Amino acid sequence: MKLLAVLSALSAVAAASDFCPTIFADLTRRQLEHFDSDVPFTIGMGAKHVPVLTLSEDGKTATIVVGNGDEEGGVWHPMKPSGDPDKVHWVTHILVKDQDGNVIVVDPIDPNGFPDNKDYVAGGIPPQIQFDVPSGVTEMTPYEFCNLHGLWVGETVAVPSTTDVLAETRATDATCGPKQWTSGSWESVHADLLRQQAAHYNPNGDAVFTEVDGKKHTPYITLDGAKGRVFVGVEGGSPIHPMIASKDGNVHWVTEIYIVDQDGTIVAMESLDPTDVSEATMEFDLSADMTSGGTTLKAYSYCNIHGLWEGPVVEVPAVEAPAVEDEVSPAEVGLNSASTSSGDLIGAVLSAAAAVAML
Ligand SMILES: [Fe+2]
Ligand SMILES: [Fe+2]
User: Which part of the chain is the Desulfoferrodoxin ferrous iron-binding domain (predicted)?
Assistant: First the structure.
């Protein structure tokens, strides 16, 4: 019973997140502002971008692919990872709504996962996801977002009521919470944010904003040994950046915070959940390499409304390695170092311990 209570508490926590409807609301906002359409694009605009949902025979597993590479002359949507803002092009998210309009799936897609599909060729591996159909779901509508070509919708698919997917209950148990970009995606995500900065936010090019442009959006790093923390805005003061989740489109939050080292390598990234939080923060661990001296870090934050910002560079202080206790040498415990079986060693250590105890 206790386990059931814990599980239902956990699912209540997951269900309480507004992350998925907020992401969907922001993609809808981008569709209107950047692609001049108040609805998602459909197959009439081209099959290459359309998500197609199919069910397994038993109706329990759904697969969504993007494009029509399985048709004569068709192509899957290309997946081109790149650190170059002028080249990066991929299906960034695949999403699903149920029969009631609830967002039940939001998957960030790693553009590196489809190596044969970089050059618009048919064949190859289509951008895709697979998931278990939640109980209570009777209809699903697939969506996808392309970083260059906007939000697209595919055909709604009915979940057969003859399957035992629906046997337990009519209430859906679908939960959709925050999911993180895989580290392989980070370079492409950063390149795409630079691309958006140039296209929509900074008329002077892809230069990111800094605290000179305002502290409210600036990410500040603080360090404590091997622990790092980022706060967007003036911690304990004003201004700080808001975190506004919404199911109906009025969304404004810091979507990502990430850390870049002196070589330009991204060492940490987090997509933030704006549900029930008032501050944009992120914690990260510093590797032993970073704390051995010579490392500098800076943070980036991306606001869905106000673009890409970078904070001041911080120098990571070298952390002294903890002193290692001198080991007891075989000679000290009277052991012949030429013959060191494990039994000998254990015996020697026990003898040494007994000798110490007698002192
Ligand atoms: Fe595209
Ligand atoms: Fe903002």
Answer: 46-153, 213-311
